[in-house]
From TrEMBL:
It comes from the Eukaryota. Transmembrane segments: none annotated. It is found in: Nucleus. Keywords: Chromatin regulator, Metal-binding, Nucleus, Transcription, Transcription regulation, Zinc, Zinc-finger. GO terms for biological process: chromatin organization; regulation of DNA-templated transcription. Belongs to the Alfin family. The lineage of its organism: Eukaryota, Viridiplantae, Streptophyta, Embryophyta, Tracheophyta. Pfam families: Alfin. This is PHD finger protein ALFIN-LIKE. InterPro entries: Alfin, Alfin_N. Histone-binding component that specifically recognizes H3 tails trimethylated on 'Lys-4' (H3K4me3), which mark transcription start sites of virtually all active genes. GO terms for cellular component: nucleus. Residues 6-100 form the Alfin N-terminal domain.
Amino acid sequence: NIVITEKENLCLYGFPSEQWEVNLPAEEVPPELPEPALGINFARDGMQEKDWLSLVAVHSDSWLLSVAFYFGARFGFDKADRKRLFNMINDLPTVFEVVTGAAKKQTKEKSLVSNHSGSKSKSNSKVASFFLTTVSLYV
């Protein structure tokens, strides 16, 4: 369940423990880090909850990609490293896909294919947790 108060400029924060929190933006975000989308609560007025959650998920995906490639640049990733990072990210479901249920559909389709090839697929939550933990280690 999501409880949103009427505070201004709320942001969604994800933690390595797989917990999420909606709160005011940090007062002292390091200026070099990409900023998360502010005001996720403003758009929800007049929107259906499902549509609003999808919008928040899209903004979350955008921020995660921004942070991932920021640290890639910061650590001097070359073309091959950036390509590997991009491929690793694309192997995971997006927050949007998880929120809308598209990730479950893709997992079902992949497991049908992988059952024939003998490989096992990881659950979305464990894979997403790995990605969030990896990103949070550098933040």
